[in-house]
């Protein structure tokens, strides 16, 4: 199974591709004055700052291929104008995908071959 730093999520007004690669993670580090794993830890432990959420989502949109100006407009509409906890789960998913990868394919019993047919 391969993994990538890309994740598609229903967010805001549609489905968007988010990706935090090396460059976006470096910028996140600069913007938050903390390493990416420290930001993820803050998001998990409730010690986050509102900029942690907005920067993760904005940089994820840019890394996913959205123009920076469009990403900023979406952040102003769907993050800064909304309660922070509404976007918290998205920020966690985006940053976790950037740090440990997101599954490219779903694994499960529904896709496994029927053992009776294999024999």
UniProtKB/TrEMBL annotation:
Superkingdom per UniProt: Bacteria
A Pfam family that the UniProt record links to this protein: Phage_TAC_11
Protein name (record): Gene transfer agent family protein
Organism the protein comes from: Rhizobium leguminosarum
